[in-house]
Amino acid sequence: MYEHLLMEEKGPVAVVAIHNPKSLNALNSATLSELNACLGEIEKRRDIRVVIVTGSGTKAFAAGADISEMVNAAAAEGRAMALLAKETFRRLEKMPQVTIAAVNGYALGGGCELSMSCDIRVAAENAVFGQPECGLGILPGFGGTQRLARLVGKGRAKELIFTCDRIDAREAYRIGLANKVVPAAELMDTCFAMAERILSKGSYAVSLAKMCIETGTDTDLDSGLEMEAVNFGLAFATHDKKEGMTAFLEKRAAVLTDF
Fold this sequence. Notes:
Layout: E1 5-10, E2 13-18, H1 29-43, E3 50-55, E4 60-62, H2 67-70, H3 75-94, E5 98-103, E6 106-108, H4 110-117, E7 120-124, E8 128-130, H5 144-152, H6 154-163, E9 166-168, H7 169-175, E10 180-182, H8 187-199, H9 203-216, H10 221-235, H11 239-249
């Protein structure tokens, strides 16, 4: 179905892998277009509740944008590529499903930016993160200047972007870029175990919480709190609210079904 992606469904979990083995899973325009289309189909489905994004093979999550495509590109073409990445990566942030980046190797440039667009980042011990664009005479164009600063703070983001330094998984965890670091052999099992914990919760409630976090962090506190209150009330209209609270009072496991 896709030339540059591998997709596998395991019940309510979809695994989407970037598959450009000749270029360490580089993100060219064709790959971004396929990823955008794939995510667009997934976000419409209610049988898929968690999406794990990773790279095929064992060396790279995604080693960045495809330099061979960009080297002769004009300004308008560069902007078009950035806008395509913006649309694709924002879809990850806005879709109701929870997205987990399984970072299985190099996550450089666009690959780092792709990982930052996911809700949660689980890194293998061999993962390497970095934004090398300034060393190529450009700057991060797939969201790096915006998301990295939001995740790790302006000072660390500026240092990483200005120096083009690469950092390993432990340092990424230390500064808040990675949520968890695990041995490479345990990466996917860890992501699936996390997915199972998320799936055991109220999926509609989780999707509302995701929306509140994503929108609220980009607005003022009062507006964010008002939005939270509205969605808190909305959750009271669901089966899961009644079932979850009743099960708690009856000291039994809840059967949560809303999404």
